[in-house]
Amino acid sequence: MTVTRSHVTRALHLAILLAVVTQLLSSTIMERPLAGDDPDWPYALHSWAGTAGLGALALFWIWTLLRSRFETPLWRLVPWFSRRGLAGLRRDFVRLALGLRAGRLRLMHLDAIAGAVHGLGLSLATVLAITGALWFFALQGGPWGHAALGAHKLAGNLMWAYLVGHPAMAILHQMLGDDVFSRMFWVRRRFGGHTVPAE
Fold first, then answer.
1. Is residue 89 situated within a structural domain?
2. Residue 177 and residue 10: Cα distance in Å, rounded?
3. Is 112 among the domain residues?
4. Of 83, 72, 93, 69, nearest to 12 (Cα)?
5. What is the number of other CB atoms lying within 10 angstroms of the CB of residue 12?
6. What is the pTM for the complete model shown?
């Protein structure tokens, strides 16, 4: 089945991407204010962009339940609890191993692995947003606050790794002939040496 991307999916994906990048970059220069002090602008940006990101993530998960059957279903984004999802991952890993051995990486379409990788990124971003919101709005101070902040920092470090690895794999796919950018963003896709408008 050919996976398509609706305008809603693309818009939410872009919103989440912008929120995550803003969060990670602002976290490198912000300082948490002391009690009674006004926050500096990077901290304020981090706080409110994080709240907006949590909203975009909530809308994305809801949209995943409602959207067309021609888009990636929830069980493919989170295959770990589904017999069907795990079977798809096993098939893709076998295809990957056989393809690498035969040198046919260019011809491979590993939809189950791709869906699981996207799902991991979305899950990580969701943990990052929820723990940040819990700390900011409810749990500052105390053992639960320290736990939320610790989980937030750990998720942030993992998200840095994801933010490097995920685009790198997308660029590799693009170089191997799989025109992923036109499916995920509003760019023109290549077809037989020409370009046609993105769907």
1. yes
2. 21
3. yes
4. 72
5. 19
6. 0.75
**Count: domains in the chain:** 1
Domain span holding position 23: 7-196
Identify the H or E element spanning 150: helix 142-175
Sequence-distant (≥ 6) Cβ neighbours of residue 95 within 8 angstroms: 108, 110
- In CATH, what number is assigned to the domain containing residue 126? 1.20.950.20
> Are residues 155 and 124 in contact, defined by beta-carbon separation less than 8 angstroms?
yes
Give CA angle at 57 (120, 188), nearest 5°: 80
Question: 37-51, pLDDT tens digit by residue?
Answer: 777 888 889 988 999
Q: Which two tokens stand for residue 137?
A: 């709005």
**Within a domain: residue 1?**
no
What is the largest distance, in Å, between two alpha-carbon atoms of the chain? 64
Closest CA to 21 of 128, 112, 102, 116: 128
113-160 residue pLDDT tens: 888 888 999 999 999 999 999 988 877 777 888 898 899 999 999 999
Question: Is 171 part of a structural domain of the chain?
Answer: yes
